[in-house]
Amino acid sequence: MPSVLFDPDHRLWLLRGPTTAYAVRLAEDDSVRHVHWGAPLTLGQAAELAERISPAASSFEAVADVDELAVEGGARFGPPSLLVRFADGTRGVEWRYAGHDIDDDGGHLRIHLDDRHYPLRVTLNYRVHAGSDVIERWTLVENRDEHDPVAVLRLDSAAWAAPHRTRYRMSHLVGGWNSEFQLRRTDVPVAETVLTSRRGMTSHHANPWLAVDDGTAVEEHGEVWSTALAWSGSWRVTLHRDPVGRVTWTGGFGHEGLTWSLAPGETLETPVFAGLYTANGFGAASRAWHAYVREHVLSHPDETHPVLYNSWEATGFDVDEAGQMALAARAARLGVELFVMDDGWFGARTSERAGLGDWTPNSDRFPSGLGPLVAEVRRLGMRFGIWVEPESVNPDSDLYRAHPDWVLHMANRGRTEMRNQLVLNLARPDAAEWTHAWLDRLVGEYGVDFLKWDANRPFTEAGWPGHGDPDRLWIEHTRAVYQIMDRLRADHPGLRIEACAGGGGRADLGVLARTDQVWISDNTDPVDRIGIQHGFSQLYPAHVMSAWVTDSPNVATARRTPLRFRFHVAMAGVLGIGGDLTAWTEQELKESAELVAAYKRVRPVVQHGRQHRLRGDGTLTAVQYTRDDDHVVLAWCPTRAFGHDPAPLRLAAVQPEATYLDLDTGATYPGAVLLHSGLPLDLPPGDHASTLVRLRKAG
Known about the structure:
alpha+beta, Beta-galactosidase, Chain A, domain 5, TIM Barrel, Immunoglobulin-like, ten-stranded antiparallel beta sheet, eight-stranded parallel β-barrel
C-alpha cells in the first residue's frame, strides 16, 4: 500500500511508516495543521482526531493547534518558521491552498500553498522511505512576482509538534573543541529554548539533533520524538513549550538576523529536517536513525572501512618523504590498510602560520613530488590518503597575496585571524572553481584514495563587499562545499572522504550524504572518548565514527592508559592509529598487530550491525553490536574501588531460549542468563580495564 494517503472530504493526509503514522490537515484558513505523530492510525481514525484547542483561549492567546510551518499573521505568537517582507513593506502570509501531488512511488507528498494577495508560492515537502519510520521534511519558496524581490527573513525546513503529555524532557548534544557530543537530558522549560550555531559550520558546541520524550523514556522503553537537520553550516532549532503544555519546535539553516533577497522568479529550497517517533526508548530511536543513515544517507553503506594510520601526532608539521615512508613501513607491520599523511606536506607549511592555500608539494620535503611516497605506500599494500583544508587560507600565502578579496571580509572592518587563518568565501564562483580545480588535480595526479577534509576555524566578518545580497554567503558557502565534494566523488568514484572540522565541528546528515566517515574529536583520550562516542551514537552509526589509538600519556589530557584499553575504546567505530610508531616498543608493536587483527575479526559486526548501549555497575559501560547470529561486546571500566568488581553485564538482543558460544574461550551461556543475570567479564585488575567478547548463537 502507498505510504501517503489523502482524504479529500476531511482535507487530510496520512503518512505511514512500518510502526508509526503522521497526519496533517488543512484548516478553514488553508493553513496546514498538525494532527498526529505517533502510533499507527488508519486514515479514518486520523479523521476522527479533534483539533487541539488551547484551554487558555482568550484575546491574549491563540486558539488553534500548531501549524506545520508557522508564519506571521493572525493570532500566532510562537516562534515562526517563515518570515517574509514584501516590497511594499507588508509582512506575514495568508494562505490559499493550491493543490498537492504525490509521487508515483507513493512516498513523496508536496502541499502547495500560495499567498492570497502576493505572488508567493510555498511548497511543503514530506517524504517517507519504504521500511523506515523517518519522515523527511523540507520547504521550497518561490517568488512568482515579475518585478519585485521578496525579503526572506527566516525559512525553516519544518516545524514539529509532540502530542500532549504530562511531562516533557529534551535531549541534545553540547560541548566544545576536544569535548564534543556531550549528551544533556533535562526537563523542557516553559519557554523558548534555542539551539544554534552562528559559526558557519555545524559546530563543536551543539549538534542539530533534538529529542523530546514523555519524561519516562530510558534506553529500551518510552516514547521519543527526535529530529535531525541535514545541514553543515549555521543553523537554528527553537523549542517552545507554552504555559498550557503544547510543545513544538522549528528548525532550519541559518541563524537569526540573516536576510535573503529572493529575486523575481527565484526559488529557495531548504535542507531536510528529518523526524522519527518510537515507543521503545532512546536505544530504539538510535538504531532507527542508524538504519536510516545507512540506507538513505550514505553513498557506500555496504563498504567496510579500512584500518587507517594518520601521521599528525607523530610528526606535526615536520613532514618529509623519508619520515612518512618510515611511518608507513611500521604501520604496514600492524596490519594498517590506509596510510594518511596529515598537515605540512605543501607550500611553506612548516607551522600553522604560513602556506595554507598553496596546495603544491613542498619541493624541499618532497623533491620528486608525492609520487615516490604514494608508490611506497601502495607497495606496502596500503591505500593512500592525504589531509586538506580547502576552505581556509593563511594571510602569509601566495594565494592570499594574489586574491585577498577571496576571503570573508567586510569593508572598514579588521580581518580576524584564528589559528592564523582566514576563511575563503566559496560562495564566490571563482573561488569555488579554483578550489575544485586543485583538489581534482591532486586526487587525479596521485590517485588519492582518501581525503581528510578539515576546517579549523569558524566564520568571522562574514561579508561580501560589492555584492547586493551578502547574507546569502552563509548558505551558498556550504552549498559550494557540497558541490565540490559531489563533483570530486562523481569524477573519482574510488575516492573516499572523511569530514573533519578541528575534530567534530562538522558532523551532520548533510555532510554524511557526500562523505564516508567523521572525525568526531581531536581528543583521543579513551576515557573522554567513551562519553564523546556515547553522545555521537545517539544519531550516528559506528560505521561513520572514526576513532584512533594514540600515544600514552595522551597529548590532550596527559592521562596514561594501557594500550589494550585505548584499542578497545577505538574498536567501537572505524579503527585508526595516530601515535608516533617510531617511538613504540617492539612489544607495543606486537600487541598492536594482535589487536588490529582482533578488530578485523569483529569489524563486520561493529560497522554493519545494530548497536545497543549497555550500562553495568559503577563506571562500567559497554556497547553490544549484533548482526545475524553474531554479537560483539566491548566493555570499559575506567575506574573501580578495591573489592568492587563489576557484576556480570546484562546483554540485550539475545534470545532467551537460545545458547551462545564465546568464540574465544569456548564457554557457552543460555540466552536467558545473558539477559537477566549477565555476561561474566574477564577484566584485568585496576583502572582502565576493558574487554572484547565475541558471541555466536549456537542453538
